[in-house]
Structure to design on (222 residues):
């Protein structure tokens, strides 16, 4: 399978390496030079410095040959435009996008773009050929719907962060995994959060903000 990704930040890099490890071909379009440099040591990834909302850079990836296009940037408007180009100009059969603001999810879905808000789940969608609907079915909590939440811990956050067992999480919520650098960490009770971690949590919608607050709360001084 050939996948083209828009965005080579932490999200795009994680997905790209995950797909490469599964034996797939990957190209990434990324406008920031430093991020491109971080990706270039991997000879198995075609890295193009440019804007994925510009057809010129999409053409360089031979996007018409792609099986899937994935928009992973932190800007929903850029993701939306690149997804539309991938479908309407290049005829890519499958379009998946990271959606950063929940209110935008309906717009993406209405235009047949598979909208996902969690990095590791995008990889799973591609590798296991699941649809977003099937994935939602797999991630139900009790009899109701849940939110899959990304919480970014700032890179300049205090080094004194809580362990998983110290988080004051509300009921009906759980930390599923941590994205740390280019790797995935399945946390246990003693696992301590670190600056730059991306925390993926499963939570009931009404307590989402409490989960965010608990994850970002500094550890108590001892």
């Amino acid at each position: 399978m050939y996948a083209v990704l828009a965005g080579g930040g932490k999200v795009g890099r994680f997905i790209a390496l995950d797909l490469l490890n599964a034996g797939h071909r990957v190209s990434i379009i990324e406008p920031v030079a430093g991020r491109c440099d971080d990706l270039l040591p991997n000879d198995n990834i075609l890295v193009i410095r440019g804007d994925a909302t510009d057809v010129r850079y999409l053409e360089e990836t031979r996007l018409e040959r792609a099986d899937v296009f994935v928009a992973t940037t932190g800007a929903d408007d850029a993701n939306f435009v690149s997804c539309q180009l991938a479908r309407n100009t290049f005829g890519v059969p499958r379009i998946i996008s990271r959606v950063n603001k929940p209110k935008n999810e309906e717009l993406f879905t209405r235009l047949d773009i598979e909208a996902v808000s969690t990095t590791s789940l995008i990889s799973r969608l591609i590798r296991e050929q699941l649809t977003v609907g099937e994935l939602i079915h797999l991630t139900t909590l009790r009899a109701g719907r849940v939110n899959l939440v990304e919480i970014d811990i700032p890179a300049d956050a205090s080094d004194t962060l809580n362990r998983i067992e110290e988080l004051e999480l509300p009921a009906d919520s759980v930390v599923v995994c941590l994205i740390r650098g280019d790797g995935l960490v399945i946390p246990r009770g003693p696992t301590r959060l670190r600056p730059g971690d991306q925390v993926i949590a499963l939570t009931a919608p009404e307590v989402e903000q409490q989960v965010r607050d608990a994850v970002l709360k500094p550890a108590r001084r001892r």
